[in-house]
Amino acid sequence: xxxxxxxxxxxxxxxxxxxxxxxxxxxxxxxxxxxxxxxxxxxxxxxxxxxxxxxxxxxxxxxxxxxxxxxxxxxxxxxxxxxxxxxxxxxxxxxxxxxxxxxxxxxxxxxxxxxxxxxxxxxxxxxxxxxxxxxxxxxxxxxxxxxxxxxxxxxxxxxxxxxxxxxx
Length: 168
Known about the structure:
Radius of gyration: 19 Å
Number of helices: 1
Strand order of the largest sheet: 1-2-10-4-7
Order of helices and strands: EEEEEEEEEEHEEE
Strand content: over 45%
Largest sheet: 5 strands, antiparallel
Helix content: under 10%
């Protein structure tokens, strides 16, 4: 991977991965992490050409990646998009004799493969783990005796307003 200062979602740079003619490209972070409380992994993804996209895999594992959790991205589109991967959707590749788990992560990596005779560039930005998503929305929920409603803000007639929508 290389750092890109031209196309970023937030901050000064994004991480770019470039695959040419089905060559696998891998970028990783080596860091001890305890992800046992993770609800989902979230990041922004920018794709330059979906016709060149073959696959992209997120792997979270031990240092030599003999034991890991894996998620393969699909249904991507051109431009920036928010990717949210729930922890329960990661496939597990862990040896029965290993004590590896979400609390013993040592490496997070992204693998990218383009289609044959194609050049694919993706950019990653704002990679983060969300532990307690309810914390972000609990102040926006309103309850009454019959139903739960969700408070949202909207712009109408150039004025900021509030509206309630039912969420059962």
